[in-house]
Amino acid sequence: MPLQVYYLTPEGELRRELTEAQVKSSVESGDGLLWVDIGETTDEDGQFLERVFKFHPLAVEDCLSTKIHPPKVDDFGDYLFIVVHGVNYAVESEVVETAELAIFLGRNFVVSNHNHPLFSIEAVKQQVERDGRPMRRGADFLAHSLIDTLIDNVLPTVDKMTDIAEDIEEEVVRQPQQPTLEAILKLKRSAVHLHRVMAPQREVLNRMSRGDFVVIGEAARIFYRDIYDHVVRIEDLNQTIRDMTDNALATYLSSVANRQNEVMKVLSIVAAIFLPLTLLVGIYGMNFENMPELRVAWGYYAVLGFIGLAILIVVLLFWARGWINWGRKPVMRIKSFAAEKERLVGYIDRFRRGHRKST
User: Fold this and answer.
1) For burial by CB atoms within 10 Å, which of 84, 214, 264, 348 has the most?
2) In the β-sheet with 14-16, what is the strand arrangement from edge to edge?
């Protein structure tokens, strides 16, 4: 079982590789701070948690289960059972996947459990091994470090999703194609996945920051409030991405419909132009002997001229109705919305120029 143990003694010494008896003794003594990190939880790990820490079987069952559990915080009196989610960077997928982190938070111990490798956990381990700083202020601050780093690792994914959404907006206007639609749907699914875990996670962190649990000290609550603010910001950004994908999808469908309309318009114009020509050539293509125009020397040229005149009349009629845009003045592009600096209240250069003139 991939299990790592860190124990900070009351004297400030950091120990690792503790035996099960030493882990149990440190928990029962209530001295120092113990951190146990378990990855890829097995049945043996579950028995270890029940045997050493006396955790509730339902909480241990959640750790053993491979199903995705919603973010939550359960109060068992002596400890809290917390479930939070972050981005799963261990898998390669075109849709954002989330990873679950379960934390048991007691007065002198923290047990973290995850079934996927998490960069946030590794970052906290490096800090602990370097100077022990995340563990020197207590269990509630160590749990804060684990959750805070996990949430911070969500922001790069959200920023990347924002860049993709902006690229999609440009693509759907310029040249919408089938891959563009697939990119929109994948981005929309990613935003929905993040929303499913971030929305309830916001309420969990709000409860942890307002003093509902005695395990979290008053000094640490403001730090949990900071994580709550980060989650709110992520959720707002994610909601913006969802709105952008909805707008991009509507724009894509509208652009495709407009392109189809343009094609149908061109075909209709061509059909309308050749309709009178078909009538003329149909009349003069009849095999009657007594047709007056057959004996006129300039009749052939007259019919060709009439055909050209019919084409010109139909084209001018369509141009006058706005169905043909050839030769029309293009619409002026919208200029930047940046205001003139000289008209802004408090613009410094304006006062500098005035000062130069007075001197």
Assistant:
1) 84
2) 14-16, 3-8, 33-39, 109-114, 98-106, 79-87, 72-75
Tell me, yes or no, whether 159 lies in a domain.
Answer: yes
User: Percentage of the chain surpassing pLDDT 90?
Assistant: 35
226 part of a folded domain = yes
Last residue of a domain, one of 253, 270, 293: 253
Residues 159-194 as b/e (b if ≥16 CB within 10 A, e otherwise) read eebbebbeebbebbeeebeeebbebbebbbebbebb
133, 57 in Cβ contact below 8 A?
Answer: no
| Residue type present at position 140 | D
* Closest to 34 measured CA to CA, from 16, 60, 55: 16
Closest CA to 149 of 216, 196, 89, 215: 89
- What does the pLDDT look like over 259-276, one tens digit per residue? 777 778 777 777 877 887
213 and 296 assigned to the same domain: no
What is the rounded CA–CA span in Å between residue 101 and residue 20?
23
Q: What DSSP state is assigned to residue 340? A: P
Same domain, 316 and 226: no
What whole-number distance in Å separates Cα of residue 172 and Cα of residue 177?
Answer: 8
Q: Which CATH number fits the domain that encloses residue 109?
A: 3.30.460.20
User: Does one domain contain both 326 and 239?
Assistant: no
Q: 353 is in which domain, residue-wise?
A: 284-358
Q: What is the rounded end-to-end Cα distance, in angstroms, of the chain?
A: 79
The pLDDT tens digits for 11-43 are 888 888 888 899 888 888 888 899 999 988 889
Pairing of strands 3-8, 14-16: antiparallel
- CA-based nearest residue to 277, from 318, 319, 320, 308: 308
Q: pTM score, two decimals?
A: 0.75
